[in-house]
């Protein structure tokens, strides 16, 4: 779709398109967190070890992360409708495989197929929203997208805990499958083509380098959280990933039509918003990884209890996403980022002083405060960065933003788990604690200190953001378009 026609879609049609996208994105993200609580049940049912069973979550995130950098190419190669239908059909097929799987191998195959579809959905949704809406309305629209991204992780552990306690783990996939099928039917009849086709040629070498580069790094950092940084597997995959990524970037800078346009990082405001969002994401991932360990392993509560503890914060983040989107459209992103990262920093401090008697209610409130801060940062920063790019580069901007965020999440999780493990074992060896539970709590406290550093880094960087209001940018863009038209006529 040409840039000048991008915002001429009727409001009713746009709302239907967003509803279709939100449904697909919701179940894709829900699926990412759904099996974490179900792993013990899968181990018993399919007779596999804990290290093997955790691959049902790792492989989904890995394939998801590999697909994201390629989405810019796919969005320019295929129509919005065709690409979304492919993504949803892939996701539904993988869900069916996983639901019917009598063996762990078939379950893994289902998760891989799911990951292919899920990796396409979020960048495609964000690119379509940025294309359909004028700059002055993008914050509100992206805030609606934040509903899916926030609510899904909130319901995942809680829903999974309830289902696994009452039914088989296969039921989780049977719950998702009908929703996926309904969304496919709705997309077939309601979805319109909103992105611009450029018909780039398939650069197979770039795709192979991208897969090896991002796949190697994501796998290496994920494995480091479980096996340690000194593992031969971790070191090998990180080395292969780093070399492949370097070659991928070099190739993208030298080919005529790159699969992923790294030159978007030349825009200083776009790059700064991405870095601020990455710092926020690392700190957020810390809470979602470490709090369940504290609640379940150190305090003896159930998986469902830990999910319920995270639920209010995630719900608050989801409810606030459209509101912060509206605020962004009025005042810009700088004030939101500073306020949000301040709340995230303040909400992280109590987690550095956990004990065996810490109030779960107080920690739930502090987690909600942290998630309120995250809601003020994630989508507003994504929108502020993408607003700096012309429509022709938005697909590359969304792919870059989501890729770097995925890498940051993997690195952050690995670093926090490593810090927690080493601090816990060090405290136990030094006799600083009297029990294994005390050592674990000490390790979690130190890991949250690292999460605090990430939040503070993001807070400091947010003061350097340029607070350009979206409505002002849109007026300037209109004036620029009129000037270009006059010049071309002359």
Automatic annotation (TrEMBL):
InterPro entries: EmrB-like, MFS, MFS_dom, MFS_trans_sf. It is found in: Cell membrane. It is a multi-pass membrane protein. CDD domains: MFS_LmrB_MDR_like (cd17503). Residues 17-470 form the Major facilitator superfamily (MFS) profile domain. Pfam families: MFS_1. Gene3D superfamilies: MFS general substrate transporter like domains, Multidrug resistance protein D. One of its GO terms (cellular component) is plasma membrane. It comes from the Bacteria. PROSITE patterns: MFS (PS50850). One of its GO terms (molecular function) is transmembrane transporter activity. Keywords: Cell membrane, Membrane, Transmembrane, Transmembrane helix, Transport. The chain crosses the membrane at residues 16-43, 55-75, 82-100, 112-129, 141-159, 171-190, 202-222, 228-249, 269-295, 307-328, 335-354, 360-386, 407-428, 440-465. PANTHER family: MAJOR FACILITATOR SUPERFAMILY (MFS) PROFILE DOMAIN-CONTAINING PROTEIN, MAJOR FACILITATOR SUPERFAMILY MULTIDRUG TRANSPORTER MFSC. This is Putative MFS-type transporter YcnB. It comes from Marinococcus halophilus. The lineage of its organism: Bacteria, Bacillati, Bacillota, Bacilli, Bacillales.
């Amino acid at each position: 779709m040409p840039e000048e026609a991008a915002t001429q879609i009727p409001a009713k049609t746009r709302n239907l398109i967003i509803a279709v996208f939100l449904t697909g994105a919701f179940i894709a993200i829900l699926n990412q967190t759904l099996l974490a609580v179900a792993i013990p049940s899968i181990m018993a049912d399919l007779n596999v070890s804990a290290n093997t069973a955790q691959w049902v979550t790792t492989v989904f995130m890995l394939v998801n992360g590999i697909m994201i950098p390629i989405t810019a190419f796919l969005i320019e190669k295929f129509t919005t409708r065709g690409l979304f239908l492919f993504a949803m059909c892939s996701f539904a097929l993988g869900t069916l495989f996983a639901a019917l799987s009598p063996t762990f191998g078939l379950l893994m195959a289902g998760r891989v197929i799911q990951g292919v579809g899920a990796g396409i959905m979020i960048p495609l949704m964000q690119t379509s929203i940025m294309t359909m809406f004028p700059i002055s309305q993008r914050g509100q629209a992206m805030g609606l997208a934040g509903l899916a991204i926030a609510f899904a992780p909130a319901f995942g552990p809680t829903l999974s805990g309830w289902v696994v306690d009452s039914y088989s783990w296969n039921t989780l996939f049977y719950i998702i499958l009908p929703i996926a099928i309904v969304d496919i039917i709705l997309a077939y009849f309601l979805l319109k083509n909103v992105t611009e086709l450029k018909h780039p040629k398939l650069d197979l070498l770039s795709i192979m380098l991208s897969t090896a580069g991002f796949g190697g790094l994501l796998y290496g950092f994920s494995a480091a959280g479980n096996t340690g940084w000194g593992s031969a597997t971790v070191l090998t995959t990180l080395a292969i990933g780093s070399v492949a990524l370097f070659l991928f970037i070099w190739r993208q800078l030298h080919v005529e039509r790159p699969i992923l346009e790294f030159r978007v990082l030349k825009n200083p405001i776009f790059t700064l918003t991405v870095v601020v969002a990455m710092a926020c994401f690392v700190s957020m991932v810390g809470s979602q990884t470490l709090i369940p360990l504290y609640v379940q392993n150190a305090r003896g509560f159930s998986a469902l209890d830990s999910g319920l503890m995270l639920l209010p914060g995630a719900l608050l983040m989801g409810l606030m996403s459209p509101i912060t989107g509206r605020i962004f459209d009025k005042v810009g992103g700088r004030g939101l980022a500073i306020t949000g990262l301040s709340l995230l920093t303040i909400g992280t401090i109590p987690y550095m002083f956990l004990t065996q008697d810490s109030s779960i209610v107080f920690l739930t409130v502090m987690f909600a405060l942290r998630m309120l801060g995250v809601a003020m940062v994630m989508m507003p920063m994504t929108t502020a960065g993408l607003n700096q790019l012309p429509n022709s580069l938005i697909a590359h901007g969304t792919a870059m933003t989501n890729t770097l965020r995925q890498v940051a999440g993997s690195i952050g999780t690995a670093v926090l788990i490593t810090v927690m493990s080493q601090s816990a074992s060090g405290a136990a060896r030094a006799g600083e604690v009297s029990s294994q539970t005390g050592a674990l709590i000490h390790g979690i406290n130190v890991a949250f200190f690292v999460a605090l550093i990430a939040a503070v880094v993001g807070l400091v960087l947010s003061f350097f953001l340029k607070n350009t209001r979206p409505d002002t940018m849109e007026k300037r863009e209109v004036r620029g378009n009129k000037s270009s038209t006059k010049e071309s006529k002359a």
